[in-house]
Amino acid sequence: MRSSSHALLLPALLLSVGCATPYAARSTDAYIQAVLEKNHVPGAAVAVVRDGHLETLSTYGLADLEDGAKSEPDTAFQIASATKVFTGTLVMLLVQEGKLGLDEPLSKYLPDAPETWKGITVRHLAAHTSGVKSGLKEGSAEQTSSNASVAERYEAARKEPLDYTPGERSAYGLTDFVVLTHVLEKVTGQGFEELLRSRLFEPLGFTCTRFEHARQQGPVRIADVIPRRATTYRYVDGAPHRAWFLYPPHTYSAGGAFSCVKDLARWAVAMDEGTLLSPESQRAAATPFKLNDGREGDFGVAFTHGTLRGLKMFGHSGGGALGDVLRVPEKKLTVIVLTNAQGLQPMLAPVVASHYLPPLPELDAPGIPDAESALTAVHRGTMEGLFNGTLDAAAFAPSAQQELLPILQGFGTPGNALLPPLHRVTLLEERKDGDSRKRVYRAVYGTDVSLKWTFRLDSAGKILDLQYEWE
Q1: Burial code of 222-257, b = ≥16 C-beta within 10 A, e = fewer?
Q2: Global confidence as pTM
Q3: Best label site of 10, 121, 328, 343, fewest CB within 10 Å?
């Protein structure tokens, strides 16, 4: 069930409400309801902000299955790594004020940084390119030391060798954001949570956004009360189960916030109006890190980046699709989708944003001649199989069957409705790459939703690796 909340929100939000196109609003509503139904998601909330106006805010289903509480505009969802939207904004505020330099060495702010870190800058940390150990290994102290302080975890990190040369590659991690937190606290003299409250949450009038301070004490987990909290679920063995992520406080710059669609809409309006970050600062935040070999890294300043319908976008998702925030600065368009179910792929915000943007200009371009239509058919089956859980192991090289395939098999769910049906596949590029070769396709879903797929193949035409991206 869906409810629209414009009338209720106006007095509290102090936002100007725009007028979403009927097609965009209907398409978004139908899409979200289908995803919730097909994936056993109890509840969700969606906001679309364009040019400083709240175009639509809708809530769906239940925030809690046990007491039947409905999802509302002020329901606080755990947004996991989408917390980095706030961290990236905070970093750029300090840069904008001249208190922090993205390309300054860490030693300027942390004089006790080890000699091996002399090549690391603030930008390296914020873009996951520092080389500091990730802290993501199952059972790592970074994840289990729920009572450790930021300073204590920094001390532990500085004793570890680097995993790679700073700037060599993008490697999503946790510890680099713990070190980044230490930098922010040293520069400002304030704790990270106080920084967020004083610089973002209070000035923007947030009412729902906070951290739960969960910690494990023997067999007991203790956490703060989060007013109007959405219970997070995981659908396992045919039934929903309560399941949420435990974030130690020293990792809060990387994830762990609870927030509501109403607060995030306020952030989006401030970004549109330039009262939070200037357009120049927003461009800097969304600019991909340039790796040592000249390639683009996967992140800007805490934000992910990419292209949607030919337009630059940035944002962040978390916990799969617990929180999915996407911004298209050229159109001053922000889409926010919050859910209370783990296991979804972060496709929701891009698909919703597609309803509000014109199609990709080159959507119907013919591509290049395809001399291997049978191979293309195999790859089309892989594109469909990744999302619906029907991957064919025979399409993969032996090495990929051992390492890559088990990971990919955890992605898909039959009939998940995350994307419209796959309509056509066009070969865009084919090239040799050492002992392997690459084939790049445009896959069009429905009438105008498209992904670019890249397959790396061995000499026998078997898949070694694959990736997809919005275009």
Answers
A1: eeeebebbbbbbebeeeebeeebbebbbbbbbbbbb
A2: 0.93
A3: 10
Q: Which CATH number fits domain 1-358: 3.10.20.30, 3.40.50.720, 3.40.50.1220, 3.40.710.10?
A: 3.40.710.10
Q: At 184, which amino acid appears? A: L
Taking the C-alpha atoms of residue 131 and residue 171, their distance in angstroms, rounded to an integer, is 8
What tens digit of pLDDT does each residue of 320-329 get?
A: 899 999 999 9
* pLDDT for res 140: 65
Of 44, 39, 40, give the one whose Cα is nearest residue 61: 44
Task: Give the Cα separation of 122 and 128 in Å (integer).
Answer: 10
Q: Which CATH class is domain 373-470?
A: alpha beta
Place of tokens 């105008």: 448
CA angle 24, 14, 212 (to 5 degrees): 90
Give the dihedral sign, CA 128/386/341/58.
Answer: positive
Nearest-angstrom CA–CA distance, 384 and 419: 10
Cα separation, 99 vs 198, in Å, equals: 16
Q: In the predicted model, is pLDDT for residue 9 greater than 50?
A: no
